[in-house]
Amino acid sequence: MSSKAVLNKRWQSGEHGLAIERLPAKESFKSKAYAALKEAITNMNIYGSSEPLLLDERDISERLGASRTPIREAVAMLEQEGLLRAVPRRGILVVRRSKAEIVEMIEAWAALESMAARLAAQRASDEAIAELRMFFKEFDLSRIERDRCDEYSTANIAFHQALIRLSGSKLLEAMTENLFFHVRAIRHRTIFEMDRAQRSASDHLEIILAIEARDADRAERLVRDHTFRLARYVENHVDLD
After folding, report:
1. CA 111 to CA 212: how far, in whole Å?
2. Which residues form the HTH gntR-type domain (predicted)?
3. Contact criterion met (CB below 8 Å) for 214 and 121
4. pLDDT tens for residues 148-161?
5. 3-state SS of 88-110?
6. φ, ψ (nearest 5 deg) of residue 45
7. Mean pLDDT over residues 133-153, rounded?
8. What is the pTM of this model?
9. Could you report the per-residue pLDDT of 189-225, keeping only the tens digit for each?
């Protein structure tokens, strides 16, 4: 056997390098449980009530059709992300943030999303930018009807996610991922209040026009101001503590 073949064999065996083993089958179950559970709690209206939001491990296991071991592992991962907290003898608590924490998160989101808007105006294709209008094609943006606020809230949240993606920055997507959990929830709660849906619709149209015109400065400013208005609204009108 040649010296090169011997060296390759040693590397493959882990003698001189990375000793790696096949992932156990349960790893895929943990990942699937994590993804399903994270999606489910992301879609919860966590600020719609002041009552604690407690999840039951056994119920989750039955709903997902998985054993409780990958569920516990998924919960541990979501605890590390600050989304859940296991409470002895009570269950799994969905974590809410204080008003001050929420305001800080929204302000951080404003900085990240406004940069995403700038990058979108500079980098995104015309076809990708055109898709921003599709979120609101079923609405008359000059008049958001009260009985369509739920539908509009869903479109609103999808629009803000799309802005981040249009930046083309995977780092921005990663940095906003866990902020999104709480910012999404507070957007959904407040969109129904004090005619905010109508103001939101007007802002979105201006943002789209700025990005379509490739006006990066204006797009960045409009998105930042739009999100800062949410922060000030939460500060002055929302009771979370």
Report:
1. 21
2. 27-97
3. yes
4. 777 888 898 999 99
5. CCCEEEECCCCHHHHHHHHHHHH
6. -90, 75
7. 80
8. 0.77
9. 888 787 888 888 899 999 999 999 999 999 999 999 9
**Per-residue CA distances from 21 to 12, 70, 222, 234 (Å):** 11, 19, 50, 50
CA nearest to 38, candidates 66, 73, 70, 74: 74
Concatenate the DSSP letters of all residues of the chain into one string. Answer: --HHHHHHHHHHHTSSS----PPPHHHHHHHHHHHHHHHHHHTS-TTS-SS--EE-HHHHHHHHT--HHHHHHHHHHHHHTTSEEEETTTEEEEP---HHHHHHHHHHHHHHHHHHHHHHHHHS-HHHHHHHHHTTTTS-TT---GGGHHHHHHHHHHHHHHHHHHTT-HHHHHHHHHHHHHHHHHHHHHTTSTTHHHHHHHHHHHHHHHHHTT-HHHHHHHHHHHHHHHHHHHHHH----
The residues that bridge with 85 in the sheet, in sequence order, are 93
> In the predicted model, is pLDDT for residue 8 greater than 70?
no
What is the residue-averaged pLDDT of the chain? 85
Task: Round to the nearest angstrom and report the end-to-end CA distance of the chain.
Answer: 72
